[in-house]
Amino acid sequence: MTVKEMDGTEMKRRTHRKALSGTWKRRGGAGCALMVLLLAAGCQEQASDAPSNRKIRLGFPALSATVFPLVYAQEKGIFEQEGVEVEMTRIRGVARIVATLISGDIDVGWMGFDGMTNAVSQGAEELRYIGEFLKELPQSLVVAPHIKTFDDLRGQTIATAGTGSHTDTLFFEGLRRGGLLNPRKDTLYLNLAGAENRLTQLLNGTVVASSLKVPFVQLAEERGFKILQYQGNLMEPWGGEGLVTHTRVISSKTEALKGLVTGMIRALQEMQDKRAEAVELAAEYLALEPAMAEKVYDHMMPIFKADGKWNPEGIQRTLDEKTGPERRMDVTQFVDDVFLER
User: What is the b/e burial string over 263-301, where b = at least 16 CB atoms within 10 angstroms of the residue's CB?
Assistant: First the structure.
C-alpha cells in the first residue's frame, strides 16, 4: 500500500503497520477503517463537523515506540472523549517539524526538548514546551556482529539521525565516552533521518553501526546485531521528549491543547493499568510478534512520564548547551505548564 507523507512523497509500507506511516485520524463511521489514512486512492476523507479550534494537527518524526501513547490515545478514543480531534502526520526530521510548526502548517510537534532549543537558539522564541512524556530516549548504539569495541569503529561508516537532534546528541556523546574523541573525524559519520532507514542500512551492511530506538533495537538483535552501548541516560539531567507548540496556537486553541495533553496523561495511565490491551495494540502498530511486543512494553513503561512534567534542571541544562554562557536564557519563558493542571 502507498500513502502520502507531509512532503507529498510516496512511501511503501506493510499493510498491517497502519498506524503512523502517513496522515491519519481516528474514525468510527462505516466505509472507512478505524485508522483512516489519506491515501492516493481509496476511501476519501470526509469533512469533519468539529470546530476548527478543537482540531490539532500534530507532526511526529518517526515510527517508533516513543510515540506509542499518541497512538493509544487515538485508537482508544481518548482524545475524542477529551473533546479534541487530532490529525497526525509523519514529518521526517525534527528540523522540518519545527519549520512546519513555525509556518503554521501544524499546531503541535512531538520532539525532544533539545530539538526545540535548537530553534530557540536561532531566534524561534515563540515556541513552547507544554508536556514531557518521555524522560529519556530508549536509544542504543547497535553494531554489526564483527564490531567488538569502539576502536573497531574507526574509519567505518556509521549512522545517526539528523544533525542537532536528541538522537544525534546522544550518539555523539556516546562515541566520545567510548574513546572516539572526534567522532566526525574518526569515522565516516552519516546523518540519516528515520530509524527505519538506519535499520535498513545496518542490515544491508551499508553502515556498521547506528543509533536505534525501541523496537528497532530488538529487530536488529533478532538478526544477530548487538548493543555496544545504551545511550538513553548518558546526559542526565537532560530534557526529555514531548509536545511543542507555538504561542499563536496557545492563544487560538487553548481548550484543544488542554484536551491533547490531558488525553496523553490519561493514555499513559491506562496503558499502565491495561497491560494486555496496550501490548496487543503495540504488536499491531509496531508489526511485532506478541512476545516481542511484551518486551517493548516492559522496556518503555518505566521511561514514560505519566504526569507530563519536566525536570527544570534538565531542560535548563539542555538550553544552556545550545545557547552558551554568553547568551544564557531563562528556560521558564519557553515552557507552559498550564495544560498540565487537572
Answer: bbbbbbebbeeeeeebbebbbbbbbbeeebbbebbeebe
Residues 246, 115 share a domain: yes
Cell reading at 311: 525536570
Domain range for residue 68? 2-136+240-340
| CA nearest neighbour of 223 among 238, 234, 212, 235 | 212
Same domain, 219 and 248: no
Name beta bridge partners: 37.
Answer: 24
Residues 8 and 112 in one domain: yes
Query: What total of structural domains would you count in the chain?
Result: 2
DSSP summary character for residue 138: -
Q: pLDDT per residue over 24-58, tens digit each?
A: 455 443 333 333 333 233 333 444 556 788 999 99
> CA-to-CA distance for 41 and 32, rounded, in angstroms?
13
CATH number (domain holding residue 253): 3.40.190.10
